[in-house]
Amino acid sequence: MASGAKGLAVLVLAAGKGTRMKSGRAKVLHEIAGRPLLGYPLAVAEALAPERLVVVIGRDADLVRERFDGRAQFVLQAEQRGTGHAVLAAREALAGFEGDVVILYGDTPLLREATLRRMIDRKREARADLVMLSALVPLPGRVVRDPTGRVERIVEAVDATPEELAIPEGNTGVYLVGTELLWKALSRVGDANAQGEIYLTDVVAIAVREGRRVEALCLDDPDESLGINDRAELAKAAAVVRRRKAAELMATGVTFVDPERTYVDVDVEIGNDSVIEPGVVITGASRLGARVHVKAHSVIEDGTLDDGVVVGPMAHLRPGSHLGANVRIGNFVEVKNSRLGPGVKADHLSYIGDADVGEGAAFGCGAITVNYDWDAKHRTVVGAGANVGCNANLVAPVSVGRDAAVAAGSTVTQDVPDGALAVARERQRNIEGWRSKRPKKRKHD
Description:
about 20% helix, UDP N-Acetylglucosamine Acyltransferase, domain 1
């Protein structure tokens, strides 16, 4: 767990049931762009290097703990009775801490580190007791201001009057507040509302009544306020993350032919002067070097591509694939759990699975490593400079030596020595008069 920023703690509320997701698992474990929802606020929190980082969990608590083990202190909110109740569940975990607490949410993945740092700066510069984050979007809570423009209170939409519902400024629920005010105010919050819950938003009204200084910082980018409640919002957030990722990579010298039609996960790395064509999907922790060209409709899953690799179109690199410099993988080629040395070529319609391939080796059209015997997977070794002919089958475990060759149409079950040619196919027979002897097909009326 990160530590370093004295006087700052981060509390992430992630105990919600997520019923609108219609899912068999906790909402915060659903992924966008290769990362679970909870991973986003955790990453932002870690960037602040807080003294303490606490996550309040509820549904599927054991699974959430396991997925994010070591990154935070977890506390259980066994009964969900509102956001204020969730914060109170973390009071023991924050015992002895005196400073400011940033309150985030496990289902709000688009908030940026820079925004939280602006909140910290605003609190210091304005000498505020509480800073809240607002947005000009119709959020569940509305920010009610007095005639002078000062924050007066937050009203939940279910409790709001028609006039209050018309207020354009919404409450994101993200707060920066000192522990002294937080615990004092929460001790006075009741549940006399339409939901019968303890609202964290009531802390704002209590602070105002006590004459505390409350500041509302309005988001420049309303996307940051997006909370995930259903699958449609999940897809919307994923599109934002992918758009941001493409912009980040383009700023470092990567070309996206059509960013809106390219799907790159948030933790992918791509080197400069690489070109990514439309329809490409790059997932997980894939690492692409410089001058890589990924052609249209190719898929790369947790792969490593060294400089100058060309992939596609319509190729598939499955997990565990490492392609050396200047490897060329063509259309309808699949590579899985294999290491290909520099300059290897497989231009079309081949499968290379569980293989170690030496530098400069080449696979002809339809060449296949037969890696599975219905009980276990086995590896194939192909030496540097070897050539595997069209429609050849390499039945693992087997090795093809350095500068060796496998004739087209061969099924190789024994090792091929260095420099040798393997021919493993039945001798051709021509049956004379076969056509005339074959029964004629009946014509259909």
